[in-house]
Amino acid sequence: MSSKLPTSALLILLSVIIYSQSPVLLQLLGQANIDKTRLIKWSDSKPLNNHDCKVIHKADACEDVKIHYASNTAFLACGDPIGRTYWYPCAGVRHPEKRAEASFREQLFKYDITTGLTTKLELEGCKEEEDDDDDDDDDDDAFTHIPTSSPTYSDFYITNDHFFARGPLRFLEETYGPFTWSTNVQYCDANNPQVTCKQATGTFPGANGINSWNDRLFVGDARNGTVTVFEIQEDKSLKWSRQIDLGAAADNINILPTTGDPIVAVFPTLEDLPAYLDNVRSLGKDFLVPAAALRLDSARDYTPELIYFDDGSVVSFMTTGAVDPYNKLFIGSSVLQFGGFAVLVSRDTYLTR
């Protein structure tokens, strides 16, 4: 179904759908038909590479991690677990009035792999913008949770988690989604003072994690459990190459630097965000959410292979995993957990080669 259906027509359909609860109308509107039994392939896995883990409590709710291999440094984007229970738009939680203003200024940390020291970063030269939570601004929160991949320093690709920013059509997405037209990949050019973005792919039910290696772009889908591989063309357009069924919903993607293999954090059980938000203080303690990561082996046509599995005792609701093959360790982190990331010294040669 085209994402360009007129807004007026969508509003009429929304009214009819709410009144009738018609599956036929929802299908007409483009509701994605996802077989959820496909998304629990790894749910009964045995613990794997979860030994000798150290949970770091200096940072909380670390949604993503990137390793700078040359300096033996991991950089983490972290936040306030409680604040996210009030303001977490990608999960349909939008109550900014309940969240302390200071908690919106989320934090970056660096982890020194050599010394084990975790330090909060102070960004110089980055002036904090004034609060622009203005309901009259049509562009405000248009992209509410935006993973990125950057081929260069002046351009990048992004994914968005919803098509609509607010209003009745956002309610439609959150209540009756996912829809086949909800998300896509955009190419953004930052060479000029005004950053411009344009759609670079077709649509996905839940485009989420994204990363690139040489001329390949990898896009994970958090709804239908796939990674789609695109070839990056000289003009920065994208050519579809293949789609890999992961057997679990995908979150953030990192790249193994020795081979270019994607490392994908996946949810081995069906995601239940409302329950995680309700139990955020207990995540990783009394309330456990299984965690897993896959390596897509490029030498075997990107065949998924399980490289990490834990019942959630280490990191619950793990949203990213990164491998350092030089120091032989794995770092996993969670967007909601107190004690936001864990470091594992690996004995598995396949994991780190």
Model description:
Residues 127-141 have a biased composition (Acidic residues). InterPro entries: 6-blade_b-propeller_TolB-like, Serum_paraoxonase/arylesterase. Residues 124-145 are annotated as: Disordered. The protein is mainly beta and 353 residues long. It has a single domain (31-122, 137-352), classed as TolB, C-terminal domain (Neuraminidase). Helix content is 12%, strand content 35%. The protein has helices at residues 7-20, 23-28, 81-84, 167-176, 273-278, 349-352, and strands spanning 53-56, 64-68, 73-78, 87-88, 93-94, 107-112, 118-120, 148-149, 155-159, 183-189, 196-204, 207-213, 216-221, 226-232, 238-245, 249-255, 262-267, 291-297, 303-310, 318-324, 329-334, 341-345. The strands form six sheets. It has a four-stranded antiparallel sheet, with no helix packed on it. Strand 2 (64-68) and strand 3 form a beta hairpin. The chain is globular, with a radius of gyration of 20 Å.
List the helices and strands and how they pair.
Blueprint: H1 7-20, H2 23-28, E1 53-56, E2 64-68, E3 73-78, H3 81-84, E4 87-88, E5 93-94, E6 107-112, E7 118-120, E8 148-149, E9 155-159, H4 167-176, E10 183-189, E11 196-204, E12 207-213, E13 216-221, E14 226-232, E15 238-245, E16 249-255, E17 262-267, H5 273-278, E18 291-297, E19 303-310, E20 318-324, E21 329-334, E22 341-345, H6 349-352
Antiparallel strand pairs: 1-22, 2-3, 3-6, 4-5, 6-7, 8-9, 9-10, 10-11, 12-13, 13-14, 14-15, 16-17, 17-18, 18-19, 20-21, 21-22
